Amino acid sequence: MSDNQQEYKRPAQPPARRGGPGGFGGGGMMLPPEKAKDFKKTLRRLVGYLRPKQTQLLVVLITAILSTVFSILSPKLMGKATTKLFEGVFSRMKGVPGASIDFGYINEILLILAGLYLLSALFGYVQQYVMAGVAQSIVFNMREEINGKLERLPLKYFDSRTHGEILSRATNDVDNISTTLQQSLTQLITSVITIIGVIVMMLTISPWLTLITIITLPLSFIAIMGITKRSQTYFVGQQKSLGQLNGHVEEMYTGHRIVKAFGQERESLKEFDRINEQLYDSGWRAQFMSGIIMPLMMFIGNLGYVLVCVVGGIFVTKKMIEVGDIQAFIQYSRQFMMPITQTANIANIIQSTIASAERVFELLDEEEEVPETSAALAGKTGPEEGAVEFRHVRFGYKEDAILIEDMNIKVKPGQTIAIVGPTGAGKTTLINLLMRFYELNGGEILIGGVDITDMKRSELRARFGMVLQDTWLFNGTIRDNIAYGREGATEADVVRAARAAHADHFIRTLPMGYDTVLNEEASNISQGQKQLLTIARAILADPSILILDEATSSVDTRTEVQIQTAMNTLMRGRTSFVIAHRLSTIRDADLILVMNHGTVIEQGSHEELLAQGGFYADLYNSQFSDGELSDAV
Amino acid sequence: MIKLFKQLKPFSLPIAVILLLVFLQSMGDLYLPTLMSDIVDKGIVQQDQDFIWKIGGFMLLVAGGGALCSVVASFLSAKVAMGFGRNTRSRVFSHVENFTLTEFDQLGTASLITRTTNDITQVQTVLMMLLRMMVGAPMMMIGGIIMAVSENAKLSLVFVVVIPVLALAISYVGLKGLPLFKANQLKLDKLNLVLREHLVGIRVIRSFNRIQHEQKRFSAANRDLTDTAIKVNKIMALLMPMMMFVMNFSMLGILYFGGMRIDSGELQVGSLMAFIQYAMQIMFSLIMVSMMFVLIPRASASAIRINEVLDMVPEITDPEVKTTLADQSALHGCVEFKNVSFSYPGAEQPALSNISFSARPGEVTAIIGGTGSGKSTLLSLIPRFYDVVEGEVLVNGVDVRMLTQEELRAKTGYVPQKAVLFTGTVKENIRYGMKEATDEEVQHAAEVAQALEFVSEMKDGFDSEIAQGGGNVSGGQKQRLSIARALVRKPEIYLFDDSFSALDFKTDAKLRAALRGETLESTVLIVAQRVSTVMDADRIIVLEEGRIAGIGSHSELLAKSDVYREIVASQLSEEEIA
How much of chain A is helix, strand and coil, in % rounded to 5? Predict the structure, then answer.
């Protein structure tokens, strides 16, 4: 189970999210969005998550509309003020007697405007504020749901995927959804309202000018589409080169010792420079392409500006519109361009969000563990608690690749079973079956005379204790790690278990004793010490059946002796399955299971197996080649 | 950050051009409202349509020129930013290639990888943003203020009030928000940690029935994260409305005061309209500038990390006066340690003290001892992964520090403890040892390394692809391939650093038997944990806490070394020793 444990965390991809609030075209967000397989279905399901928050969402919607509408109204009003100013000045210039600027009117408008702006800002704030709570609590529930789901998934799911993949669904994808809910959703609402509202307002001022402004629209769409299409190829190329480069760096750095030992520095540098040059090439093209979107949009915007000024100016001279209308139009056309660039963006964001949501839902829809039988025969077993029996067990990780065919084993309480075989021979398979991490394809396994499928998983597993080579300890104190073996263990229990595991001494030599906090990789204590802690944990759990891995590689001899004694203490009076590495254990075992290529190929006692002259005998003899031992002393 | 940007020197000309272009473009953008005010104040007032058309055409030219400037600027800045990224990456990578293991230990491999990849990309992106948008913002702001002042100095006083208010508002949100952003990231990491632990320990968790406990841990972390995220977003919710509010109110102010100026004849309506537009441009650039303060700290953290790498001086360098190895056939492949001591930097205890021995071609020297006894360290001194602190290591009678690293390493075939394979075919991986090796030689090496069987079973035999990190072959297979890689090199000195640990006893025995035939003329050094691996060596060195606790053959050591006997006893049961 340690196969997919990564040596270190891969450097995470830089989050490709949009810039800050306001959201204009940032750097690397022009990658073609991933497409969801079934957009509609996923969208509908995602909307389902929003339903319980209906009231708040309604508030968000209303405030968003109000806030936008108020901000749309204001340029027209402001234009009116400007017109009044102009009229006053104009008539005074013309020498109209008593002409003056109507400040009463203007001040009134300014006052109304102040009110509108205030309300617009207020509603804008309320909308964002409410949405923060809504978005985050939806995402909170989603994470909880995922975690709950992970608890119910069979191990098959975890073994067939890398941790990174599962983690990425639970964090990155959910994060993506969260950001979209927080920002893009409201942005979408306001953008649409702004576009509609601005068009309406412009039409009320002058249909002709509106037409002129809208003419620039298709122009900008064509420009954006054309550039995006072209730049996407470069972005894909850039991403590919970047991936290659990262891969090369990762490989060369992790294999630094080898690169040096074989004098391949120059080769590696040559390769690096090659990829780097490629990256530069597609990189600057991609950046340039996405970089000209802004100037182009600005140019098109300016084009509209000039048109509005010129045509508006002429209209004014023809008395078709007022001066203030020009000003209002200039403001509207500016307000207009922003949401249009944004919606193009948001469409992409929403697509990638739906793809994320789809991945999350995929996880939530995975097949769960076979449910427990309702009439669990709890506590029906008597003194025979440690008895284990395999009856005609048939099993394979895939239906069409059966590994174990008709396996029969009978183990009495307290017996020791040695499992022998080359590395990767499938010893974990046995653990998977015993603990019911995987379901059988046929036959049954009985513990204490009861079929394990008739037991509650928790009860079944409570009978087992595991001490494996890749120790699992978590980021917490040593005390908590040992106490993990049994809920509600007292301080005295913990110390007693540690003492029995010969771990008490080393724990007390640590500066913080039992309160020492193990760091993330638990690298602040040695491998052997970790193993002692897992033994203590198993002792505290007091199981009736044990699964032990004897391998103590990368442990110094003294610790190894300690671990051995601790294991012997632990095994006393318990049924033990031992993944054996030591001849003495193997020979003293009541039963030896010889495994190869994932299946049990021979079983019996040491003498029986030697007499058979099969795989075991071969293995046994090869361990001490050429009989050198006999003449060693 | 600034230090890193010194590397922009080769790009100083394009950068100067970018600045000029951006300046022109900003000026163009600012000139448009001025022209507009001409339309209003002259064209409309005097009902002069020709004038309006003329100015309109001129405006179009200005807009076009501005667009052209910014397209060219964008082209140049893409080239500059990416070129800078390329150069920095190349510099860092080639610098790291010269690192010895000491530097790798110091910074950590994972960290070095992130520094070479993500950190540089981060700086590159920020540079891009700087050149593309941020450079223009201050120019726009200053230009806007100049234009506004020249249009009407007194009305510009509005800015004296507004700009500080806006700056204050932005920095208030920034100051409150940034620490929360950081906390948010930490809590996200914490949630990831909980989940990662859950995934790694899933068998243990389930077997101890601690699902509920894990559930609680997760929920707590989740709740914590959500609370912070809500807080952050609620503060950020303030930003946009607040900025819009300030901006809009300043516009009202301009209208109000401007109206009074117009009344007194100091100002024309067109100018007022231009003025409002200047105000908008100034404030938008202020918002842009404020974003710079968010971007720069992020990039400067990356820049610091990159500089740390670049500032590190490799500990081991080639000698200035090259000593070439004379072809003394008598000393071919001889390895000798003379009173060697070594400590890792910063370590309290020496990792090796006073080690002396010599190994000759045709001999097998095995090194055994507990974890941390210094076995691997001893081996690492021969290809000069580390330099000795005292004493000397001689290869062919010459101190390794007098040789170039290339020449020294050409003599050695090193098989590491943790087998490392590279992306590529099986054949390419074996040929890594010697580029010129023929197919026969590759096949032979694989055969000796006991890899032929499983390689032939693979779909494409020797042309089968090895995934990154060797994910598609087992640990034992990886080890055998990395042994083949050393064998194909036909080196004078073989260094096996616990290279048989993932093999089962049978393969281990077969491999050692086959090796014996290959290494008749070479010096072989083997580090091992298993007694059975070292028993038949010509010389066994028993290490304990960095000192030689015994040296001799298996039987000699059994007789005289307590440490060796203890190791043997822990691995073999009584009968096998006797």
Answer: 65, 10, 25
In a domain, B108, yes or no: yes
Span between the terminal Cα atoms of chain B, in Å:
68
Position A20 confidence tier, pLDDT thresholds 50, 70, 90 = very low
Which among B244, B278, B311 is the end of a domain?
B311
Specify whether B383 is located in the same domain as B502: yes
Are A136 and B230 a contacting pair at CB < 8 A?
yes
**Model confidence at A523, in pLDDT bands (50, 70, 90)?**
low
Alpha-carbon distances of B86 from B112, B281, B459, rounded to whole Å: 17, 35, 39
pLDDT at A470 over 80: no
Chain B touched by A305 (CB under 8 Å)? yes
- Output the pLDDT for position A426: 63
Total domains present in chain B = 2
Distance of CA B303 to the CA centre of its chain: 12
Q: Residue B455 maps to which CATH number?
A: 3.40.50.300
In a shared domain, residues B190 and B119:
yes
Please, is A627 exposed, middle or buried when counting C-beta atoms within 10 Å of its C-beta (0-12, 13-18, 19+)? exposed
Query: For B339, which DSSP code?
Result: E
Interface check A6 vs B, CB under 8 A: no
**B233 in contact with A, Cβ within 8 Å:** yes
User: Looking at chain B, how many residues does it have?
Assistant: 578
Question: What kind of fold does domain A378-463+545-626 have according to CATH?
Answer: Rossmann fold (3.40.50)
Residue B35's domain spans which residues?
2-311
Domain ranges in chain A with CATH number 3.40.50.300: 378-463+545-626, 474-542
Comparison of pLDDT for A23 and B125, the residue scoring more: B125
Q: Is B301 on the interface with A (CB under 8 A)?
A: no
Distance CA B99, CA B237 (A): 48
Using the predicted structure, report yes or no on whether residue B316 has a pLDDT greater than 80: no
Query: What is the number of CB-based contacts under 8 A between chain A and chain B?
Result: 470
| B90 and B185, same domain (yes or no) | yes
Q: In which element (H, E) is residue B523 found?
A: strand B523-528
Overall residue count recorded for chain A in this entry: 633
Are B380 and B303 in a shared domain?
no
Are residues B274 and B385 located together in one domain of the fold?
A: no
DSSP state of A572: T
| A-chain residues near B513 (CB < 8 A) | 625
Cα dihedral B127, B131, B137, B138 sign: positive
Domain check: are B186 and B281 in the same one? yes
DSSP per-residue string spanning B351-411: SEEEEEEEE-TT-EEEEEE-TTSSHHHHHHHTTTSS--SEEEEEETTEEGGGS-HHHHHHT
Count of CB atoms situated within 10 Å of the CB of A158: 20
Q: Are B106 and B386 in contact (CB under 8 A)?
A: no
Q: Which of residues 432-451 of B touch A (CB under 8 A)?
A: 432-433
The CATH code that applies to domain A474-542 is 3.40.50.300
Fold exhibited by the domain A39-364: ABC transporter transmembrane region fold (1.20.1560)
- Whether residue B405 is found in the same domain as residue B491: yes
B190, B197, B202: best to mutate for the A interface, most A CBs within 10 A: B202
Give the pLDDT score at B233.
86
Instruction: Tell whether B153 is covered by a domain.
Output: yes
Task: Classify residue B316: in a domain, yes or no.
Answer: no
Q: Does the beta carbon of A627 lie under 8 angstroms from any beta carbon of chain B?
A: no
Task: Report the pLDDT value the prediction gives residue B179, as an integer from 0 to 100.
Answer: 83
Across the interface, whether the CB atoms of A158 and B276 are under 8 A apart is answered no
- Around Cβ A568, how many Cβ atoms within 10 Å? 10
Residue B351 maps to a domain = no
**Is B368 found in the same domain as B265?**
no
Nearest to A251 among B29, B468, B576 (CB): B468
Dump pLDDT digits (tens) for A123-141. 989 988 998 888 899 999 9
